[in-house]
From TrEMBL:
The gene is glgB. SUPFAM superfamilies: (Trans)glycosidases (SSF51445), E set domains (SSF81296), Glycosyl hydrolase domain (SSF51011). This is 1,4-alpha-glucan branching enzyme GlgB. It comes from Chitinophaga nivalis. Pathway: Glycan biosynthesis; glycogen biosynthesis. Its EC number is 2.4.1.18. Monomer. Residues 164-506 form the Glycosyl hydrolase family 13 catalytic domain. Pfam families: Alpha-amylase, Alpha-amylase_C, CBM_48.
Length: 644
């Protein structure tokens, strides 16, 4: 069945890609390129072409590789256990070429028999099929220019406006058929120019790793080293990422080191024992997601996870990793009632092993790829998530500002007549804004599970809903920190996100939605071209309150500052539908001002209350400032002015 092979070779030859140094690093939790050793690697041995297989199954009594090359026989291709007690089973199988299907047949010491997919497979069958595919990752990249200069694009002192995308449901060939999806190439042809036109600097892809259940949105993985075959081959994904790079757009990948599903072919009880997960289900089981938690205290698991992070940065040229569910990793009592968790050795609720792992992860990533970013999804007040490990932090580059997101949405949901009692909701974030390097997210989590799309969180009639949303985005883009918008938010999606459908693109026929899209395009342009909004986005020197106590009028005013005084912006927000004519704002110095963006402009479906021409302050002490500027404040609108 295999074809012409050298008859002097055995069915499985003893062969290894591992050195003794590899084993030492693997067992120390410090091997960062295990994907070059484990898995299925087409190689030549003794003049014969074939595939080397290696799998970690420390509690197995017997391991064989089976596939379409041997009729899925459980016993004909037995792998050899290494002599060094590493738990690795390996061997060279002549004649097995790229494209062949395979799984591992494992019998544990207690006699249990399992059929498992390869944790290190680069390519899998499309679900519901569950076999891995022998596949090489050769690709000739053409993004050298981006890679050599991406440090400046990914810098914390550069603009970072992220468009979060679920590839299958951004657009579909047939919106009524959840099985119909575009290929990576087809998506790239549509998505790359769209992201470029909208002015986003980065795209964040919800997990593109292989997963069995569409309804997990990719957050329950079985193929940690495989691009999902739903859209094509690993090389097709590489080509899509390359297309973004050629357009000057960075690519962030969602990455899930927090938990994995219990599917029979996946990581759970891989060799009949708790290989990858904690054996104590108080630590090893996730009650929210019916999934299992990695054993961060086991060195081989740490090597697996860190190698996986490095894999996507190395082989797929990712510009960053957004690390999912960090809060659940670092807290033993996350979503657990009293008695369902056990304190750590110090009596606290932190998972010390997970914290140690995350520090090691970030130290490794930034040592090997100093021009990328790691971004933590963390909803807690844990100290120093985005601070260096030598300062006691976890070492992430950025952290999602979940408190800001919750407070902002709660404020904007309120009828404007009541907002004066809740101004604290939108000013409190500045109390802690510089405690971390924050990213301001309106993510997919805010528009699912009955939470309603953003446009319907806004109060009032149709006009007011859109005005409120433009105002909220104005506040977001002028608040310190980087930005993230989920797909559809940029044009006022009117239905909750449905992973089986596609976005409501037909809405762009209507002026309110087209106006909102144009506004997001323009506010992205302002953010990415105005140093005051990004040069000091993580430095308190970049922000100054001007008006913070006008509760009755619900007006806020503040300055954003770059490193040069002439880059200063003045932002004034009117949180009510009442036009404020001749509104006085105290400013610290003389100079001429010009309105550079107004969320109420007619082209955005606004009412047209704008400030035209050159505006000059008068020398008059007001609100503690030496000069006073008089403005027209649009209803439920923002005016943004630049010193000229």
């Amino acid at each position: 069945m295999i074809g012409n092979i050298n008859r002097t070779l055995q069915v499985v030859e003893p062969f290894s890609l591992f050195s003794s140094g590899d084993i030492t690093l693997f067992q120390a939790g410090s091997h960062y390129r295990l994907y070059e050793k484990f898995g299925a690697h087409p190689v030549e041995y003794e003049g014969a072409q074939g595939t080397y297989f290696a799998v970690w199954a420390p509690d197995a009594a017997f391991v064989a590789v089976m596939g379409d090359f041997n009729g899925w026989d459980h016993y004909s291709h037995t792998l050899f256990p290494r002599w060094d007690s590493s738990g690795i089973w390996e061997g060279f199988v002549p004649g097995v070429q790229p494209g062949f299907l395979y799984k591992y047949f494992i019998r544990s010491h207690n006699g249990e028999e399992l059929e498992k997919g390869d944790p290190f497979a680069f390519y899998w069958e499309v679900r519901p099929k569950t076999a891995a595919i022998v596949h090489a990752l050769d690709y000739e990249w053409d993004d050298k220019k981006w890679m050599s200069h991406r440090g400046q694009h990914n810098s914390l002192k550069s603009p970072y406006a992220v468009y979060e995308v679920h590839l299958a449901s951004w657009r579909r060939p047939d919106p009524l058929n959840p099985e119909a999806v575009y290929s990576y190439q087809e998506i790239a042809d549509m998505l790359v120019p769209y992201v470029k036109e909208m002015g986003f600097t980065h795209v964040e892809l919800m997990p593109v790793m292989e997963h069995p259940f569409d309804g997990s949105w990719g957050y329950q993985l079985t193929g940690y080293f495989a691009a999902t075959a739903r859209h094509g081959t690993p090389q097709d994904l590489m080509e899509m990422i390359e297309a973004f790079h050629l357009a000057g757009i960075g690519v962030i990948l969602d990455w899930v080191p927090s938990h994995f599903p219990g599917d029979a072919h996946g990581l759970f009880r891989f060799d009949g024992s708790h290989t990858y997960e904690y054996a104590d289900m108080r630590k090893g089981y996730h009650p929210d997601w019916n999934s299992y938690i990695f054993n961060y205290g086991r060195n081989e698991v740490r090597s697996f996870l860190i190698s996986n992070a490095i894999f996507w940065l190395d082989k797929f040229h990712a510009d960053g990793l957004r690390v999912d569910a960090v809060a659940s990793m670092i807290h033993l009592d996350y979503s657990r009632p009293r008695g369902a968790w056990e304190p750590n050795e110090l009596g606290g609720n932190e998972n010390l092993e997970a914290i140690s792992f995350l520090k090691k992860l970030n130290e490794t990533v930034y040592a090997l790829f100093p021009d990328v970013q790691t971004i933590a999804e963390d909803s807690t007040a844990h100290f120093g998530v985005s601070r260096p490990t030598f300062m006691g932090g976890l070492g992430f580059g950025m952290k999602w500002m979940m408190g800001w997101m919750n407070d902002t949405l709660e404020y904007f949901k309120k009828d404007p007549i009541h907002r004066k009692w809740y101004q604290h909701d939108v000013t409190f974030s500045l109390v802690y804004a510089y405690g971390e390097n924050y990213m301001l997210p309106f993510s997919h989590d805010e528009v699912v599970h009955g939470k309603s799309p953003l446009i319907y969180k806004m109060p009032g009639d149709e006009w007011q809903k859109f005005a409120n949303l433009r105002l909220m985005y104005s506040y977001m883009y002028t608040h310190p920190g980087t930005k993230l918008l989920f797909m559809g938010d940029e044009f006022g999606q009117t239905s909750e996100w449905n992973y089986q459908g596609e976005l409501d693109w037909h809405l762009l026929k209507f002026n309110p939605h087209k106006g909102l899209q144009d506004f997001v395009k323009d506010v992205n342009q302002l953010y990415t071209t105005t140093p005051a909004l990004y040069e000091q986005q993580f430095d308190m020197a970049g922000f100054e309150w001007i008006t913070v106590n006008d509760y009755d009028n619900c007006v806020l005013a503040y300055l954003r500052k770059g490193q040069e005084p002439e880059d200063t912006l003045l932002i004034v927000l009117n949180m009510t539908p009442v036009v404020r004519e001749h509104y006085m704002v105290g400013i610290p110095g003389d100079g001429r001002w010009e309105e550079v963006l107004n969320s109420d402009a007619p082209r955005y479906y606004g009412s047209g209350v704008v400030n035209t021409g050159i505006l000059r302050p008068v020398k008059q002490v007001y609100n503690g400032k030496d000069y006073t500027l008089t403005l027209r404040l649009p209803p439920l609108g923002a005016t943004i002015l630049k010193r000229i």
